[in-house]
Design goal:
Elements (H helix, E strand, L loop, with lengths): L2 H23 L2 H10 L1 H24 L3 H8 L2 H30 L5
Helix pairs in contact: 1-5, 2-3, 3-4, 3-5
């Protein structure tokens, strides 16, 4: 596995470990109520889900097979960035190549 792929895998594993820890140590429902009662909590949740939307758009437009894209997109709302980290680990080399190729062929990008 290349270093560029290892970074999102490591981040996804750290996030998964934090989720497991928090699930055992915290009160998810109680904190959710507190979080959504505060304006900055609402901003945080909006930021999170807008980020999920951006990841979904990248996934959608980078897959020719739209069924495969939907299968990657659907779990994002539940599994969050653990899932997107795995997607990026798998697809990042292809995305990097595509972006480099687009820079060579289109001076307007970037």
């Amino acid at each position: 596995m290349k270093f560029v792929q290892l970074l999102p895998v490591m981040a996804a594993l750290v996030l998964a470990a934090l989720i497991v820890w928090a699930a055992g140590a915290g009160d998810f429902a109680g904190f959710g109520a507190v979080l959504l009662s505060d304006p900055w909590g609402v901003v945080t949740m909006a930021d999170l889900y807008i980020g999920f939307l951006f990841a979904a758009l990248i996934i959608w437009f980078s897959h020719e097979n739209k069924i495969a894209a939907l299968l990657w997109i659907a779990p994002i709302a539940v599994l969050g960035n653990v899932w997107t980290g795995l997607w990026f680990a798998i697809h990042l080399p292809r995305l990097i190549r595509a972006l480099r190729d687009s820079r060579r062929g289109d001076a307007a990008i970037g």
